């Protein structure tokens, strides 16, 4: 069951238009300007190409129909408005139908730098550019199909794969380390942190990823890298559920972070 959110998603009108306030558009504009500077020379080429294709307005929050026009034409995907938090079942169902869930609210100024739940800035700025890439789009589609058919106890393993690819994925390129994960691309702190000497960065191994615990409320102590975006397509063709069964037998790796309760002062 999805936990409660303090945010309420905006409902599109009968024409599918969401009416944003001047302040909400201003927050979007400031977030986009800051993050475009932050990811320069750090985002992967596929992301930057996708950003050109979706042609995000910088002065206002885009309407979902504007994004759908580009996504449908490039990879057959769409974005779908959802409440602030949805359950796993709905999440997987949408992805299995080539619909990327977008919570239609934007963070408040109080949470300008960081919020735990994904808002429209995270979903659109972080993920939509990559959805114009066929390999990334196919990986995400296959992931949704697998997750929708999977049992609850197996979805936890699949969630780790999504976390270390779609959200926090890195790529080794001829130009050096580049980011393709939306959780990093939409976060100034995480973007800088990736290039510090603090996190451990390892080559992608799907079985290892399925066995790696993570926490959503801290900077990631560990990231996995692919060598090209086509690696995601190759992963989508593997028997991932057989790897999940193997991961369950082997058990989880030791977490590289302290348990939550020990952090309370």
Describe this structure in words.
Its EC number is 1.14.16.1. It is an enzyme of class 1 (oxidoreductase). Belongs to the biopterin-dependent aromatic amino acid hydroxylase family. The protein is of the alpha/beta class and 265 residues long. The protein is built from 12 helices and 6 strands. A 4-stranded mixed sheet has the order 4-3-6-5. It has a two-stranded parallel sheet with strand order 1-2. Helix 4 links the parallel strand 1 and strand 2. The longest helix has 18 residues. The radius of gyration is 18 Å and the shape is globular. The mean pLDDT is 95.
Order of helices and strands: HHHEHEHHHEEHHEHEHH
Helices, by number, come to 12
Strand order of the largest sheet: 4-3-6-5
Task: For the record, give the distance between the C-alpha atoms at the N and C termini, rounded to a whole number.
Answer: 29 Å
Percent helix, as a range, is: 40-55%
Structural class: alpha/beta
Beta-strand portion reads 5-15%
Name the overall outline: globular
| Biggest sheet features | 4 strands, mixed
Mean pLDDT: 95
Number of E-type strands? 6
Task: Show unreliable segments.
Answer: none
Taking Cα atoms only, what radius of gyration do you get, to the nearest Å?
A: 18 Å
Topology overview:
Layout: H1 22-39, H2 45-54, H3 64-74, E1 78-82, H4 88-96, E2 99-103, H5 120-128, H6 134-149, H7 152-167, E3 170-173, E4 176-179, H8 182-185, H9 188-194, E5 200-203, H10 206-210, E6 222-226, H11 230-236, H12 240-250
Parallel strand pairs: 1-2, 3-6, 5-6
Antiparallel strand pairs: 3-4
């Amino acid at each position: 069951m999805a936990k409660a959110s303090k945010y309420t998603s905006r409902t599109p009108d009968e024409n599918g238009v969401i009416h944003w306030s001047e302040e909400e558009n201003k927050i979007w504009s400031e977030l986009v300007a800051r993050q475009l500077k932050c990811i320069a020379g750090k985002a992967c080429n596929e992301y930057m190409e996708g950003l050109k294709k979706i042609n995000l307005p910088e002065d206002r929050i885009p309407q979902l129909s504007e994004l759908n026009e580009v996504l449908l034409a490039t990879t057959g995907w769409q974005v779908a408005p959802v409440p602030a938090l949805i359950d796993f079942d709905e999440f997987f169902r949408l992805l299995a139908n080539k619909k990327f869930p977008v919570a239609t609210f934007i963070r408040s100024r109080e949470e300008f730098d960081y919020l735990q739940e994904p808002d429209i800035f995270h979903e659109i700025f972080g993920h939509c550019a990559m959805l114009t890439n066929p390999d990334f789009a196919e990986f995400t589609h296959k992931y949704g199909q697998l997750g929708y058919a999977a049992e609850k106890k197996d979805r936890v393993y699949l969630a780790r794969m999504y976390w270390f690819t779609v959200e926090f994925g890195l790529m080794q390129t001829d130009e050096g380390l580049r980011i393709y994960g939306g959780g990093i691309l939409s976060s100034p702190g995480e973007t800088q942190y990736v290039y510090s000497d603090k996190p451990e960065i390892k080559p992608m191994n799907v079985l290892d990823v399925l066995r790696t615990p993570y926490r959503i409320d801290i900077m990631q102590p560990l990231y996995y890298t692919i060598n090209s975006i086509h690696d995601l397509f190759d992963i989508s063709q593997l028997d991932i559920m057989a790897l999940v069964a193997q991961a369950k037998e082997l058990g989880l790796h030791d977490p590289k972070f302290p348990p939550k309760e020990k952090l309370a002062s």
